[in-house]
Amino acid sequence: MAQESFNYRLWRYDGAPGELIPLLQSAQEHFGYIPRGAIRHISSVTGVPEAGIYGVITFYSQFRLQPMGRYVIRICDGTACHVSASRQLLDAIRDELSIEIGETDAESLFTLTTVACLGCCSLAPVMMINDETFGRLTPAAVRKILKDFRRRRDAEGDGSAATGCGVEK
Ligand code: FES
Question: Fewest Cβ atoms closer than 10 Å to its Cβ: which of 9, 38, 143, 160?
Answer without folding.
Answer: 160
